[in-house]
Amino acid sequence: MLRPCATKRIASRPVSLAPTPADWLNAGSATVVAAATIVLVGLAYLQMRAANEQAKLMRETAARQVLPLVYAHQWKGPQRRQGEVALRYYLTNEGLGAALNLEHGVLIRGARHIFGHEGAYMFRTAQPGESLPPRVSGSQDAVPPTAINLMIEESAYFSDGRLPPEVLYWCRYEDLFGERWETRNSDDPTKAPKRDKLG
Length: 199
What we know:
Helix content is 25%, strand content 32%.
């Protein structure tokens, strides 16, 4: 006769889902590491930004030491010639660096007149202290004996027979860093010349 097998019951222990102190320590360590990483990244960013600002400041300081400053100056006033007006002027580099690829002309009533055409450089360079056209060697005269003659139609110069209220002599040029500048010099000697950086 078969006897039933005795079964042994194993008491189950309840599983606790609450974090242990070790879990808290591990989570805290991970948080500290993450926070430290963020702080290091922030410090690295600030250092890079400071280095870029310092490099920019050094570049601007170096640029100022070799910055050209070319002005176009009126020479003896305009002159009428057979239906045209000759606007006469000369250029001087009053800065400390060489000027490259010079363009020049006049502004009359907002209309820009250029010597030659866009990109036609009459002068490729102007050294510090140089005048274009050049002054006579050994002469004490501050003004060169000849001038650039920009010819425009009388109709572009006169308006209903009236003289323009102002003529601006302008010059565009590049510095040694490839940056382009424009100066404007009025025929009115009471007005200060202006300089702007282009694009």
